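[User] I wish I could look at a protein chain and see how it folds. I have put the entry right below:
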Amino acid sequence: MNPEVEQSLIRILLVEDDEDDFVLTRDALRTISRGRMVLEWVDNGEQALAELMTGRHDVCLLDYRLGANTGLELLARMRRQGWLGPVILLTGMEDETLDEQALKAGAADFLDKSQLSPTLLARAIRYALQHARTLEDLRRSQASFRELIERLPDGIGVTQGEKLVYANPALVTLIGLSSADELLGGSRAELEGIFIHAESRPLLPRDDQAGMPEKRPPMEIRMVRRDGTPIFVELAPTPSVFDGQPCIVWLVRDLTERRQMEARLVRADRMASLGTLAAGIAHEINNPLAFTVANLSHLETDVLPRLTLPAGEQDEMRKLVADSQLGATRVRDIVRQLKMFSRAEEHVRPEPVEVNRVLESAISMASNEIKHRARLVRDYTGQLMAEAHEGRLGQVLLNLLVNAAQAIPEGNVEGNEIRILTRTHAEGLAIEVRDTGSGISAENLARLFEPFFTTKPVGVGTGLGLPICQDIVTSFGGRMEVESEVGKGSTFRVILRAANTARPSEAPQEAAVSAAPRRGRILVVDDEPMIGMAIRRTLQREHEVITLTSAREAQARLISGERFDIILCDLMMPEMSGMELHQAVANHSPGLAGKMVFLTGGAFTANAHAFLNHVPNRRVEKPFSTQELRGLVQSLLASAS
């Protein structure tokens, strides 16, 4: 027996219209109460409700027959008006059917007056109070649990049978509603037709509670918000009990953030792979291109003037060399664009960038996609400078140009146009790529920057290009806009902050010094033999040139004390890199390490970037011309004199 129930004062309200029954009940309570039970009596339902609503009573003894109405009807009114205390029904007959009805109606007990004894009545009252306290604890627990569910960031919906009976605020917000009332009472079929994407409906379980005995694994589906916006969610159905009835609890988790994270990871991996590939290609092309350019330059400046040929043949030879140099220059420009693309690092600081220059590089790389589909029109406004990163901005513009081209079918070049505009803007400057292609529907326009969404055929698009572009532009402090009309074309607009200062111009090529240069001793270290041979041909008339293909051999000669005025050293070599050679020489002779000039062809590692940013040594980009190399050597020798 609960000590609280045993020792505290119990207030009892008897609802009975027969005074003899009242006396009988009162006498029974006096026998057992010992002053701990107080009985009050009313003889009608209205008065009973008024008394109970005061909250002064712990137990209600209710006659089953109460005038024209039954006690069950009064009990129902009590519950509707909010009195949740224990009710014991009293009747003049023993009837199992009435007993069952009383319990279903929420009565704590059902007693036959003819069998009523003080002991039985006391036991029924104490049991009813204990049961009431247990129910109250359960209600509080359920209220706390419901409060927890109300605060969860994940959506929770509860269905009983085919009806939705509960939806927490997170679920209401997730699907774009203002109140759960817009959902409650709706059938599953009706709600699925509105809020589940057609392609995901077949994935939903169709079993009722009896057919879903266990928790099912979560599934990823597409939902549709009230405004039509699609959203990916994780759905997990679980059989449970809600308000005492079997149900299915549906956990709905928004996957937007996870999808965005996955998109960023895929983008980072893809960009790292493409950047590495581009840098590797540039490096492999630059080595043979370096000695090709150097040899052509040597042929033009040193060999052809000494040849004795008929005038016509001499001119033809010069034209052949000039055409070859032009071709090599075009290859060099393409390689530089690849290198620019490969330098699109994840963490970069915006700097002044010349917009027209980046546009021309992007146009050059996209020209093969454009030339069979549309005329390209340039509509530039001066030399605009943007706060951006050259490589990453080039990536954005290349993507927009390729997309514009692919929106136009091949075969009608004169009838279609891709126009590139640059202009000042209230927020800085704007770059627009306009096309006369197929255009984008309003439905797809709303999803254009959604990761993995693409209207291109399988294998053509990944759905990451535009989200990546948006991320890049946002990282510069800018934004993107798009306008489109089906059948008329699209306009993609990149709005960037204008740079406050012009980008520092590239260092001009070293001008040839008119005075006769001092003869120097030059060491060339490059694992590509043809590059060493090309440099020796270029410099050997004015200087002593020694070429090595092994950095370890160079290390041995330098540490042994052999002196050189200039050391031209490749940065990336397989056996020992130029960085490692520099460190070894610096440890032995810091002054000699300062004479190193690094030849770079691309394929920079993170360590190589950090190294070049740290050391003050000069560097030469491959491929280089004869004049460029001679001017550099002459300048270094003159400054050392």
